[in-house]
Amino acid sequence: MVRMLDILAEYLKYRQFPFQ
User: Fold this and answer.
1) What is the tens place of the pLDDT at every residue in 1-20?
2) Alpha-carbon distances, residue 1 vs 8, 9, 17 (angstroms)
């Protein structure tokens, strides 16, 4: 399931660059 990988990648990106 590529969708899961896409979501995971986005989640990791957000964790690295949190927009607070």
Assistant:
1) 789 999 999 999 888 776 65
2) 11, 13, 25
Q: SS3 for 20? A: coil
Q: Could you give the CA distance from residue 20 to residue 4 in angstroms, rounded to a whole number?
A: 25
Structure tokens at 20: 């607070």
| The pLDDT value given to residue 19 | 62
Q: How much is the pLDDT for 20?
A: 58
Name residue, tokens 């899961």: 4
The whole-angstrom separation of Cα 11 and Cα 19 is 12
Distance of CA 7 to the CA centre of its chain: 5
